[in-house]
Design a protein that fits this description.
Largest sheet: none
Number of helices: 1
Number of strands: 0
Distance between the termini: 56 Å
Helix content: over 70%
Structural class: mainly alpha
């Protein structure tokens, strides 16, 4: 019985560590994606102003 309790405790600990690692990785990926998206929007916002005079009838905005 003690062996089963020990095995259960070790399994729970490993599962908790793995889950925590996956969650931390997901948060890092989400932060990197938001930073990349924001940088691209900033780049395109600067470029869109160059085309505003040519496309007055078609308003264009860059948003996320």
């Amino acid at each position: 019985m003690a062996a089963l309790d020990t095995l259960r405790d070790v399994t729970i600990d490993l599962l908790a560590r793995a889950t925590r690692g996956v969650c931390d990785g997901s948060l890092l990926n989400a932060d990197a994606g938001r930073a990349d998206t924001s940088a691209r929007i900033d780049d395109w916002s600067g470029i869109l102003s160059l085309y505003a005079a040519d496309n007055e009838s078609h308003p264009v905005r860059a948003t996320a």
